[in-house]
Amino acid sequence: MPKFNFPKENNDVVLKLTVKNVAGAEDSTNVTIKTKSENIAITGAEYRSGEWRIDGTSAVKGPGVTVTIYLGPPSNNQIIAKVAVDTLGAWRYRGTGTVTNVPRVGSVTATSPTSVDVPSLAYRFR
To answer: Is the peptide bond before 113 cis (omega within 30 degrees of 0)?
Structure first.
């Protein structure tokens, strides 16, 4: 029995199914499997003394899943960091990040290659 591991990305997969009867006649059809959008959550976000502390979860578990964390919406293209999702579906970032001018009030956003919805959470500034 063939086994297939669905790729960890938000793209449909098309499989060609071919069957042959006992007389040798063949027939084929394409089967499209649609991916399910990943649910990402940001469970905590804080900027303290120049360091980010951001935690979250992902419905698609690692390895091989990366979450990108932004300051504000992704359209602003201010990436704080990219982090790996662990085998339990959790992700965490601790560090200074790549954004140097952090406002006292704002939000962080998280995305991944398999997410459609983009969660956002206001961060605590300490």
So the answer is: no
